[in-house]
Design brief:
about 325 residues, Rossmann fold, 2 domains, 7-stranded mixed beta sheet, elongated
């Protein structure tokens, strides 16, 4: 897909020693009444996190037009995916820089709590994206209800495919709250069906390669598998490729989670049966909306911006793909 290749080029262009991305000045001569600086700390360089940024930019443009507020976002991520120490360093640097707000998708949700509290104590608002930070000091969390989303996803998949079967769950990583919540959701959904059995649960670290390797092992170990529930679309793609290579694609239903372009393409092609829309754009929109509300003196609650993901299959996938096409106009590399 040409668009996917374009985004891979953007990702390569954006990576530096600290993997920082800034956008061109979009004030366009508009009168600026106030200026704010927001740091956006992603856990890795991935297309999905750039979609979050696009959602941010949509509300930033609207805020400039309506309020005259200029909001600048600096996006950064560890060069090595899920590098906790580098994300901690980036967070510390943003505290020292005294930005107005930090939006973070934490690699270690519990471990980042002391930094969150340090930031809030010096007047920096902190928003958690796509994850739960166990601290009462965050301004809000812009994220799906992971447990309920995956519970409904599992129920939908099983209910519409015989109501019974043998299941594999591929989760993310130990100690990651998002991974734990998605795993719990899948387990709760499967538990609704007495004729469903969980054969195995294995970590795949959210990535394609592990998804493929672990699935190869599962295919060797279990002669009959009906469903594979995956922590995200990347691992689901890897799992599907292993299943297809083994000639068992017609036997096994693969379920993902995220709703990024690559995963949606696999849904459209009938390779991944179901995924759900993590809605990166909405997380970005909600982040800036929450900050604008807070800076305007309005109350913002911790769970104000949580939601249940929409389930996507081959019949309704096209509008989600169309949204990615529409949102590309928001992204410019400085």
């Amino acid at each position: 897909m040409k668009k996917a290749l374009l985004w891979m080029l953007i990702l390569v262009m954006s990576v530096s020693m600290t993997a920082v991305v800034s956008l061109a000045d979009s004030s366009g001569g508009a009168k600026v009444e106030k200026e704010y600086e927001v740091a956006w700390l992603a856990p890795m360089e991935s297309i999905g996190w750039f979609y979050v940024r696009q959602g941010m930019e949509e509300i930033i443009a609207k805020t400039l037009e309506e309020k005259g507020w200029k909001i600048t976002v600096t996006q950064m991520a560890p060069v090595v995916r899920y590098d906790i120490s580098e994300q901690v360093t980036q967070f510390e640097n943003m505290i020292s820089k005294k930005v107005n707000a930090i939006a973070v998708c934490p690699i270690n949700e519990q471990g980042i709590v002391p930094l969150v509290e340090e930031a809030v104590d010096v007047g920096i608002s902190v928003i958690s994206l796509s994850a739960t930070i166990p601290s009462d000091k965050i301004l809000t969390q812009c994220r799906p209800n992971e447990v309920e989303s995956n519970k409904q996803l599992a129920i939908h998949a099983i209910k519409n495919n015989g109501g019974a079967g043998k299941c594999i769950i591929l989760f993310g990583m130990l100690g990651n709250i998002t991974s734990n919540e998605r795993l719990l959701g899948f387990k709760e959904g499967i538990a609704e069906f007495p004729d469903c059995e969980i054969l195995d649960i294995q970590p795949v670290e959210f990535n394609y390669e592990k998804g493929m390797t672990v699935m190869e092992n599962m295919l060797t170990k279990y002669p009959k598998i009906d469903f594979v529930f995956c922590v995200n679309d990347k691992s689901a793609i890897g799992a599907y490729e292993a299943i297809a290579a083994a000639g068992r694609a017609d036997e096994i239903i693969v379920v993902g989670h995220d709703g990024g372009v690559d995963g949606l393409d696999y849904v459209k092609d009938g390779k991944i049966k179901y995924t759900c829309c993590q809605d990166y754009f909405q997380m970005g929109r909600d982040t800036i909306t929450a900050l604008v509300e807070y800076w305007s003196g309005n109350k913002v609650t911790k769970d104000q911006y949580t939601y249940v993901c929409k389930i996507i299959d081959k019949d309704n996938v096209q509008p989600f793909l169309d949204e990615y096409d529409e949102m590309e106009k928001w992204y410019k590399i400085k």
